Amino acid sequence: MNLDPSHLALDHLQQVRLLTATEHAAASNDPELPNALFRTPAEALAWVVAREIVPQEQLADLPARAAPGQQNEAQAIVSEATDLISGEFPLPPWAQLHIRLLDRRVHDGVSANALDQLLALQLIDATQHAHSLSMLPTHQEAWAAPDSLPATLAWTVLRSGALGEDALRALAGRTSHPDIVADAIARIDGAKTTTRVTSTSTTFSLDSMDFSTSTSSSTSSLPSVPFALPPSSSSSTSQTRTFTWTSSSASGSAPSRWKKMIGVVVVALIALYLLFGR
Questions:
Q1: For the chain, which end, N or C, has fewer CB atoms within 10 Å of the first or last residue's CB respectively?
Q2: Cα separation of 132 and 163, whole Å?
Q3: Are 240 and 206 in contact (CB under 8 A)?
Q4: In this structure, how many other beta carbons lie within 10 angstroms of the beta carbon of residue 118?
Q5: Alpha-carbon Rg of the chain, whole angstroms?
Q6: Residue 18, SS3 per DSSP
Q7: How many Cβ atoms from other residues are within 10 Å of residue 163's Cβ?
Q8: What is the pTM of this model?
């Protein structure tokens, strides 16, 4: 029996009848499954739609398939999956999902119990403990990752902000639990990358019907995310909009193929919006 989270989540979708046997087999045999970042049924369903195993237009009708007594659960799964592949920006479902899953995986293993243990081990103090408790992520208990002290300690730096990175590194030399601190530091380092960033700003004026483009490059340490979404600004007097997309050549835990595909799609979407969006 395969007990890894992605297969368990897919199996659950079939048990609830949100996936047919054929769809379940297609998802289980998908060559991208080993690289998948999902671990819950809703994430699995969003991934199945993003992989076009189930058409997106059928997603809203899936709860009608649910087994008797499981309609409410099925509806909740479908609603969450819909949110995971939807967003403010006009990106395809797989791009929307990838962004959200990268963020969700940072929270795996983070729990109140782990925070309590970190406090008992004096790796955080009472103030840091209380602050972090107030910001704990919400997990579906049945699908949550096992409690992890290193992951939770890293989270207090990366997400809750209760502990500074310098303070964490200073713990390495004066704690009786250097293994936990070293693992947390490695997780933080893994969430960063030193990259050469190229920013291209394209301005289109409705008055002159002209494009102007400028490009700048810099090297910096950034969170390991696939790309920066394009902000836009407009002026009521000049009718000019500026769209900026920042592409990064970065190493990280996300599959490099997905990063490259996301970058290409974003550039294409910006170009189409500039041409036809107004």
A1: N
A2: 9
A3: yes
A4: 24
A5: 22
A6: coil
A7: 23
A8: 0.63
Q: Is the dihedral angle over the CA atoms 83, 49, 257, 264 positive or is it negative?
A: negative
Residue 226: which pLDDT band, with cuts at 50, 70 and 90?
very low
Report residue 126 as tokens: 């009472």
Closest to 154 (Cα-Cα) out of 120, 119, 129, 189:
189
Q: Which tokens sit at 135?
A: 């910001």
CA distance 64 to 18: 9
The H or E element spanning position 187 is helix 178-190
CA distance 116 to 145: 17
pLDDT tens-digit series, residues 13-54: 999 999 999 999 999 999 999 988 899 999 999 999 999 999
* pLDDT over threshold 60, residue 96: yes
Q: What is the pLDDT of residue 62?
A: 96
Amino acid at 175: T
Place of tokens 């406090």: 119
- Could you tell me which residues are beta bridge partners of residue 195? 220
C-alpha torsion angle, residues 195, 167, 99, 136 (rounded to 10): 180
Q: CB of 170 within 8 A of CB of 206?
A: no
Residue 234, C-beta contacts closer than 8 angstroms, at least 6 positions apart: 240, 241
